[in-house]
Write a structure and sequence with these properties.
Length: 201
Amino acid sequence: MVVGYDTNLSFNLPNIEVIKKTYYPQGECKFNSMVLSKNELITKNIPFFGIPVFEDLNSLNKSFIIGYNFRNVNNELKIDMFSYCSKVRCYVNLPKLNFCAFIINHPISNAYKLLPFRFSILKNKPFVDFKNKFTSHLNPKYVSLCLSKDNYKPFFLKQKIEQIKVKCVDCNCGKTCSVCKNKTLGILKGENDVKCIVYHY
């Protein structure tokens, strides 16, 4: 999950399409969603990833981290976003931002894979394993997370050389904020609708 600041994103590459969506603050709102497109990106197996971009980086939001994932629901692909402050270690209201989605049309066939989560034997925690998945480049450049429900606990993806681990977010609100009350589901073993799109070219 990457947060950028440059809003003048432009590409001359013919196979990359950029979709920019602007999110406007909606009062006391720490978690929200936007529609990106129809779900044909999933059904046609087209790789994509995104970057939330602050429109104004200042002293008020310099400690903010924007987490996000894609979600496939009702024939639509949505962007779920949450805002977290690393200074106070709590969820905070989403600021105004631009979400830039990069769609890679006609990609090289071996440059990406759609990988499910596996679970460690001892701790039973989800992770994505790169071993034996790519002949080279065990450190992918971009990773997109696609979920099927909107009530998962917010988490970040921690990328290592040969795998990606899930790191849950710790909130100091004492289980009183709307996110902690409503987002309680963890990734469970056997779920087929929770996957990572890994692009390494």
